[in-house]
Amino acid sequence: xxxxxxxxxxxxxxxxxxxxxxxxxxxxxxxxxxxxxxxxxxxxxxxxxxxxxxxxxxxxxxxxxxxxxxxxxxxxxxxxxxxxxxxxxxxxxxxxxxxxxxxxxxxxxxxxxxxxxxxxx
Length: 121
Description:
It is built from 4 helices and no strands. By secondary structure, it is mostly helical. The chain folds into 2 domains: 2-59, no CATH class; 74-115, no CATH class.
């Protein structure tokens, strides 16, 4: 296939000082690239087939754990209920904190606090 030559290998980020973590990342990077290349697919499927702990695609959770949130100024919430259901009290709290933050931190007009009464789904 002509696109095979265009595929760039997966490269995981490295820790600046923890060599033990970097060795784990290096091994995982190698395994993940073998999976992406299709080298391990049959072997892995054969080992998992019929195993009592095997997880079907419908039960998997996907996450990106290589995001450095330390550099983020704003963190948002995912409201599509794919991972959790929020209690109404939390929704009201998030709304109020965001509203106050807009006025105090982002210099929105103070009238906003009075104009926006509260969270209304």
